[in-house]
Design brief:
It contains seven helices and six strands. A six-stranded mixed beta sheet has the order 5-4-1-2-3-6, with helices on both faces. The longest helix is centred in the C-terminal third of the chain and has 17 residues. It is α/β, with parallel strands linked by helices. The chain has one domain: Nucleotidyltransferase, domain 5 (2-Layer Sandwich), CATH 3.30.420. Helix 2 packs parallel to helix 7 and helix 4 crosses helix 5.
């Protein structure tokens, strides 16, 4: 009998609140084989130490500065050069133009979890096993992620939750891989909001974006093919 691989999927969001003055939201998911998790965590912690940062310090897009740019550059290269890691990101544009009454039962959060379904569904292969870890959004997320779990499983007839074993809420401080997701979705929202052209834009953050665009040929404004494995990107816009 073929042994199935267990994959961990770590998810985070940027500009996800309904009234946060951003018309762009990004959801990201990084996939890592469970058997590689410990090595990846240790690698990332060693990179932090190498650059004079505590191994338990939380990495965040908002923390990127000129004084720590080499740390964040190395982390970006680490992701792209590690064959065990892959990522999918959804950038939702026009968040401020949603017709929640018509399409989402009058609830912004319904749309939010629909986007999570779009994020995760293409990552689930019925021949493997998965666990999903989502950064805590608020104290009311429990029932929503249980519903999300059920819908994802029903979509592949996994009624006993044998393929997608569970979805849990965790704190990003507890997960180096959640922190890596934060860096990439931060870069996408920064670019899509045009903040790299703002008068007070960050040269350090622009450096990270340039690495993605030039060194790894990522077009931050164009959908990749659905079967793109390493860095999968989907740009969503609301119905008009």
């Amino acid at each position: 009998m073929e042994v199935k691989v267990l994959y961990n999927i770590y998810c985070d969001e940027s500009c996800h609140l309904q009234y946060d003055k951003s018309n762009v939201m990004a959801l990201g998911a990084i996939v890592c084989p469970n058997e590689e998790k410990s090595k990846v965590y240790n690698d990332i912690r060693n990179i932090k130490i190498k650059h004079g940062v505590s191994s338990w310090s939380e990495l965040k897009w908002t923390k990127i500065s000129n004084t720590q740019i080499e740390l964040y550059k190395e982390l970006v290269y680490y992701f792209f050069n590690n064959e065990n890691l892959s990522m999918r990101i959804i950038v939702a544009e026009g968040k401020d133009k949603l017709d929640n009454d018509k399409y989402n039962d009058g609830e912004y959060n319904t749309w939010y979890y629909k986007m999570y379904f779009r994020l995760l569904d293409p990552l689930i292969d019925e021949t493997e096993n998965y666990r999903v870890f989502i950064d805590i959004k608020d104290t009311r997320g429990g029932p929503k992620i249980r519903k999300l779990h059920d819908v994802l499983c029903s979509n592949i007839y996994d009624f006993k939750h044998e393929v997608l074993k569970d979805i849990k809420l965790i704190n990003s401080k507890e997960s180096e891989l959640l922190q890596i997701v934060d860096i990439f979705i931060g870069a996408l929202t920064y670019a899509h909001r045009g903040l790299n052209f703002a008068e007070n834009h960050s040269l350090a953050k622009e450096t990270i974006i340039n690495i993605m665009e030039k060194d790894f040929r990522i077009n931050l404004f164009k959908n990749t093919k659905l079967n793109e494995n390493k860095f999968n990107l989907f740009i969503w816009t609301p119905r008009r």
